[in-house]
Design a protein that fits this description.
The complex is a heterodimer of chains A (about 200) and B (about 350). Chain A is mostly helical and about 200 residues long. In chain A, about 65% of the residues lie in helices and about 0% in strands. Chain B starts with a helix and ends with a strand. Chain B has a 5-stranded mixed sheet. Chain B has helices spanning about 1-15, 20-35, 35-50, 65-125, 135-140, 155-165, 175-185, 190-195, 205-215, 220-230, 235-260, 260-265, 265-275, 290-300, 325-335, and strands at about 280-285, 305-310, 315-325, 340, 350-359. Classes of the chains: A mainly alpha (about 200), B alpha+beta (about 350). The interface of A and B includes residues 23 and 30 of A.
């Protein structure tokens, strides 16, 4: 089978071809899903190179574990689960936790003198709309990075990758209720984080 | 506060339309009277919009190629490992192990055999004449058991046998051939020299007689000698014989391969004829044939030779042993008794030569 023929096939048919040792079918799956998976890995790890490594490892692992994929979930969901797992490992390996602690959700922000600032002033996030785009993006990214990974996973998959609750639950092996509750808390945490970032002189 | 936390979580759901209708009405009622919650909701909507509009990143262009390279490499490794699981032991491990085992076995075998023959050989070689079966001769000569194994002085036979191989060196088949004879019938080799070993070591002449008598094929050398003489006439024997012996040996080897072991032993005693080059033949035309045996014997003894008594030989042939250094002396003496018809070579001879004088 050539790549054109593969392009018209669904993931299930391609997976079946892969099981027969057809690497070009697998290549088709890689090309189809690498973008989404790379972005998941990038939001999870926050580092471009780490994300690329994670996606590589995930696809190679998927190829050798293809027998374990029983088609209960979609291929993309199964792949997402692998990427999330590898991302968690990558984050655990990383020792640079200071970046996260600077934007800790719970602790009040220390100022330059090391004194704890009171709760940020009641400044609305509408201010962000007048700010420079790149600066805002960076703030948002830092706030996402600052989330605990359990919350970040849900936010990334649901609000950024726009997966259904069911898919998110399947990828993360969580009940739907847990997904929702984590998602709402994650959104609120992002909002609070942005407010704190704005409140910082 | 607890209530407020609850509302904040509900706001998060509400802003995205995830709230159940009942909760939604309750929340909207609350929002109508709570400015801070309304501001919260606005902030939440902004934050969520920012999160959702975060631009996607393109994966590096080499990503897919690198993934596929690793996948294909892994596929090759898997298919190889299948084959290797079956053939790897045969391909690599087996040859090494078998080679090592063979080396141990072969070297062990030769070691054991060399020790065995080394214990038997000194006695055996003493009792055997220079015309010992060639299977025994190369065992000493080819293996190079060392001169220590063979006392050189009183036992002239082995050096004779040893040197004899040097002129034959022109036929490179020789050592290998005799070795292969050994290898095809290795059990015979210790047996042949083993037999005569009990005989007295320092009486060279009688053992030869006894040996040849015991051998059933004792007529064979004589017969071949005669027919050889007939066909060749007065041709210089010493030079021609190696070639004859060569063909004979080849025939022997052929025979031995085809014969069962017990029968294959038989040609071995006949081999003295094959080893004939050790012999120097001298033909005489006697001026006084009647007194020939006596005068010839006298000439021999005076030249330092020993007459080998052999009843099987016809009366006009005398066999003797002589130090090769005194060959010229003997020929001079014989020249006085009659005419030496063929001048035997006197150079490149072993230390002690077998002589057959006929008239």
């Amino acid at each position: 089978m050539n790549m054109d023929a593969h392009g018209t096939l669904g993931d299930e048919a391609l997976v079946a071809a892969c099981r027969r040792g057809d690497t070009s079918a697998f290549e088709c799956l890689v090309l189809r899903h690498q973008h989404m998976l790379f972005n998941v890995a990038l939001r999870m790890t926050g580092i471009h190179d780490d994300a690329a490594d994670v996606v590589q490892d995930a696809f190679v692992a998927a190829w050798s574990k293809l027998a374990d994929f029983r088609g209960e979930a979609r291929f993309s969901t199964w792949m997402t689960a692998i990427v999330i797992n590898l991302s968690r490992n990558r984050i655990r390996q990383r020792t640079a936790s200071e970046k996260r602690s600077a934007y800790s959700l719970n602790a009040p922000l220390p100022d330059a003198d090391g004194e704890m600032l009171p709760d940020p002033p009641g400044m609305g996030l509408s201010v962000l709309e007048q700010m420079e785009e790149a600066e805002v993006r960076q703030m948002v990214r830092r706030c996402i990075d600052a989330l605990d990974s359990g919350f970040r996973e849900v936010l990334v998959l649901r609000d950024m990758q726009e997966m259904s609750y069911e898919e998110v639950g399947s990828a993360l092996n969580l009940r739907e209720g847990t997904v929702k509750s984590r998602l709402f808390r994650a959104r609120d945490a992002i909002k609070e984080c942005l407010k704190r970032a704005l409140g910082k002189p | 506060m607890n209530n407020h936390d609850d509302i904040r979580e509900k706001l998060s759901a509400y802003c995205c339309g995830d709230l159940a209708p009942k909760d939604r009405t309750l929340l909207e009622d609350h929002l109508a009277g709570c400015a801070s919650c309304r501001a919260d909701l606005d902030d939440l909507r902004i934050a969520l919009r920012l999160v959702r509009t975060t631009p996607e990143s393109e994966p590096p262009p080499w990503l897919a190629a690198r993934i596929m390279a690793r996948v294909r490499e892994q596929q090759q490794r898997e298919s190889r490992s299948w084959l290797q699981r079956i053939f790897f032991p045969l391909h690599v491990k087996l040859p090494i192990e078998v080679a090592a085992l063979l080396l141990v076995c072969v070297s062990g075998y030769y070691l054991a055999r060399n020790v065995e023959t080394g214990m038997n050989q000194p006695a055996a070689e003493r009792s055997l004449p220079a015309t010992t079966p060639e299977t025994a001769a190369p065992a000493g000569a080819v293996k190079g058991e060392g001169p220590a194994a063979v006392p050189a002085g009183p036992v002239p036979q082995l050096p004779a046998a040893r040197k004899e191989h040097q002129p034959e060196g022109s036929a490179p088949v020789q050592p290998a051939a005799s070795q292969s004879v050994e290898e095809t019938a290795p059990q015979r080799v210790p047996a042949a020299p083993g037999k005569p070993s009990p005989q007295p070591a320092f009486a060279p002449a009688p053992p030869l007689v006894k040996e040849e008598r015991r051998a059933p094929a004792v007529e064979a050398p004589a017969a071949t000698d005669k027919s050889f003489e007939k066909t060749r006439g007065f041709a210089p024997a010493a030079t021609d014989i190696p070639a004859a012996a060569e063909t004979k040996k080849k025939a022997l080897r052929k025979d031995e391969r085809n014969l069962p072991a017990t029968e294959a032993v038989r040609p071995a005693p006949g081999a003295p004829a094959g080893a004939a080059p050790a012999e120097v033949r001298i033909r005489l035309r006697m001026t006084a044939p009647a007194s020939a045996p006596g005068t010839i014997r006298e000439a021999l003894v005076r030249s330092g030779g020993t007459v080998v008594e052999d009843d099987t030989l016809p009366p006009e042939i005398i066999r003797a042993r002589l130090p090769s250094g005194r060959m010229d002396e003997l020929l001079e003496r014989l020249g006085r008794l009659g005419t030496v018809l063929d001048q035997p070579r006197t150079r490149d001879l072993p230390e002690v030569v077998e002589i057959k004088i006929s008239w």
